[in-house]
Prior knowledge:
There is one protein chain. Helices cover 41% and strands 20% of the residues. It is α/β, with parallel strands linked by helices. It folds into two domains: 2-157, Rossmann fold, CATH 3.40.50.2300; 160-272, Response regulator (Rossmann fold). Helix 4 (93-102) crosses helix 5 (112-122) and helix 6 (163-173) crosses helix 7.
Amino acid sequence: MTDQIGTGPLRHQLGRRRFMAALAGGLLARPLAVAAQQTGRVWRIAYLSPTVRNTEESTTLRAFMEAMSNLGYVENRNWIFEQRYADDHLDRLPALASELVNAHTDILLTFATPASRAAKGATSTIPIVLVAVGDPLGVGLVKSLNRPSENVTGLALNNVETAEKRLQLLKEAVPKLSRVALLANQKNPLFNALHITQTKKVAERLDVAVEVVEVADPERLGDAFSAMIARRAGGVIVLPDPGFIAHRDRIAQLALQNRLPSAAQDKPIAVAGWLPNFGPDLSEV
Length: 285
């Protein structure tokens, strides 16, 4: 389910410390902390996200900060951490990526597919570390998982492969389910297409019709659920998207109000009030 790009598959429960040690050793000829102590250099690591600053993402970043501390990296002493958020306006990502590149960033840490694509478009030399990208090969970020080439490394969540399982779980929870809506972020069409294709494969076997309902603005989520009811959907699956994690409480509330059984990838969405969730733990990633 989770692969480290450039070094082959990793177990899903790979410890944070082990991964970060491998990452630090693979990106540079020697660890940043040691190099900083020897040269007095302060390394600049930047984080780029397509969504708003939210609790779940903060939890993931705390896991990253903890791992860095365990490896001997002291923030504001031998490394500086810059953060940029597009606040769900994906058109801002290229400018934010260029801003970080022009700030003499040493490493770009990118969350989700849109931010990763923007970072790759902004630089061909600064190392880009993917935090949560479902299919970097499918969306053209790397040429191969074993040999990504260029300046991209990190983790592939392979959550496209879990798309079928989410529908299977929802069908088990609601045996009479005959039509399911897929809630998709209209601004992330390339990644959506991969999930839609995989879901439709199992939908045909389970005799479940699929209705894709797209939303471009979180303020229009209510309209999206009205469209699901109009199309006689008996359940909803939220496609993986950082914007949906940020607005998980609103989505859960709408699903309950419209009496639509629901499933998603991310644990925070399930905690907010959904039925099953099936996917990797982003804190471990």
